[in-house]
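Residues pack. Consider this:
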Amino acid sequence: MTARRQLIVRSIAVAAALAAGAPGLALAQAKLKVAAVYTVPFEQQWVGRIHKALKAAEARGEIEYKATENVSNADYERVMREYATGGNQLILGEVFGVEAAARKVAKDFPKVAFLMGSSLKPQAPNFSVFDNYIQEPAYLSGMVAGGMTKSNRIGMVGGFPIPEVNRLMNAFMAGAKETNPKVEFSVSFINSWFDPPKAKEAAFAMIDKGADIMYAERFGVSDAAKEKGKLAIGNVIDTQAQYPETVVASALWNFEPSADRAIKLVKEGKFAAEDYGVYSHMKHKGSELAPLGTFEKKVPADIVAKVKAKQADILAGKFTVKVDDAQPKSTAK
């Protein structure tokens, strides 16, 4: 058979399959349409990691990606519905303040796949949930902080005292206690996901009371530490490049394993309601401790050794970091 005839036969077969409604083949011929709805700007740490993973999939040519940032809770349902009626096959976002509305949209569009940041359970058949279960590297970063503090006082500034924040703070505190049982913590929440000036002000107050290391769960905290000549521990993203003399270590969240899994399942027609939380664990490469970088020679060698040993135990399943969603309390007197 000539190359020309092969091409004609192949074209006829594809056309016939499409006419018969073969969904797998249809999806293979076109990029998956993916949309995301975010209540905060792309630059915010948590949302930034989701956006980064989806942009990477877009760059690989796997998806066609659209996203809307800074959507108010009151407007969230409308934007979700617009994306669902616009032919998007997978919709992502964070619905912590709009759970009921988001789940209602999912019920109204059973053929659309939804993967949403949520504190609640999946909803059959098409509403999957995820969360940044990065308590493992948070514990490791706490071990580093415990070994670096000289005043034995660590300040911690969080957004809201919800499980997603609490579990990371509690893991960090437990890690710090392992390497330094004498350490005390000052804990406060700014009741905002993105208010750098307010976070900075809260950090200043803790530094004034003796904290020499700050846990930067929110943007603004590392700025305060830098201005006061103190140290900081990063969360979700690595900002050491911006604060080379301030940020010692960071617990990183990688959303790629979750995003890539959802994209693959939707393309295969196998997407179902499930909890993606496990794909944030270190064994799935969903989280990691950032390289010490500029602090590689500044962190005591014995602390580095302990952190490496603990990381190996976590990856081998010999040590499990406790998931503690209770609101952390200050212990500093």
Observations:
- The longest strand covers residues 247-253.
- The two ends are 85 Å apart (CA to CA).
